[in-house]
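Lay summary. Proteins are chains of building blocks that fold into shapes, and those shapes determine what they do. In this project we predict the shape from the chain. Here is one chain we studied, written as its sequence of building blocks.
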Amino acid sequence: MVETVRPLTHRRVLHIALPIVLSNATVPILGAVDTGVVGQMGAAAPIGAVGIGAIILSAIYWIFGFLRMGTVGLASQALGARDQAELSALLTRALLIGATGGVLLIILQIPIFWIAFQLSPASAEVEALARDYLSIRIWSAPGAIAIYGITGWLIAQERTRAVLVLQLWMNGLNIALDLWFVLGLGWGVGGVALATFLAEWSGCALGLWFCRAAFRAPDWRNWRQVFDRSRLAIMARVNTDILIRSLALEAIFVSFLFFGAGQGDTVLAANQVLLQFLMITSYAMDGFAFAAETLVGQAKGARDRLALRRATGMTGFWGGVVALALSLGFALGGAAIVDLMTNAPEVREVARQYMIYLTWTPVLGCAAFMLDGVFVGATATRDMRNMMLVSAVVYFICVALMLPELGNHGLWLALLVSLVVRGATLGVRYPALEARTA
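And here is the predicted shape, written in a compact code that computers can read:
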């Protein structure tokens, strides 16, 4: 067993987690500014075009989210094993995947966008503006996807302050260019797209600058190491498992919206408002889940079973503290937050009826959120994938049984049950994960 280099303390956990929490807090601000600046154009079509265009690209880029998670797990293990050559090679592999994925999206943009508009049809004016938006933004796809790998590589080394600076730079530049291009120069929807295009490429450049130490040694271009078949096979397996897991999770939330839509526009709108509480929970918990990914991965790489257990316990403790704080905050101020999100009286009234479920979501979902981080760090992605599939099956069974009888209450109960099942099944698999570390 190799002893860990740095002692694992609460301060170290917070040092990793808090910058990620702050970084996540900037994400919704950018979306609000994008909507706000085109809203000044005095027409509905530009707002709809930016909205649908952003959703399409977000959905496409989301597929590549495995690159961030897989890179954290593998890079943190290489760091724990003190394998600098593999750590550098992982960065190169992540950048190559980002570049290849981005180029493929550029080449295939016409059929991809055609399919997207078939799935989410819009008026001719909105679709034309959205196509203009997408035709500009797609050219930053290689940089945008590469950022997933860069941030994962930085997080693995506990460099979350760099991730925070990267996020602040990208969003800050995007907002400044939004204001200049749209309000100052009058470039409309194209200006919003160009602002994001420039922000994403500049963010990729800044991320590479943060990784500059890796490029000073020759390991990053040791092509024999980079294209080692066994290492590539491990990376492919990990990333495929994460992708399947993410698709199952997305199936739950997309179906949740569809099932809610079947109960009328007011219920659909109320569910959309309430899902923002779930997003807040996810953003707040992410920092501590990322800390678990990093510290568990390093312990796994060092084959230090006790360090892995301590990392799991300490990050879980802080995740529990945050979950309790969120539940208390939602219980005391949830109605006020709903009122800030919508001024429609009927939507407010319906949302309050289901607020109790969001009050319990942070506590009931804490184990699922935190153990996801533990299993990613340990690259026990097969277990993570399988338990996600189990929870998805349980969710759909619960929907089939409870939705006809309980309506939207049954839908929310099914979602909470799936979170509990996910956390419980991962918990059952945890002892085996720990045993494999020794």
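What the prediction tells us: The chain has a mean pLDDT of 89.
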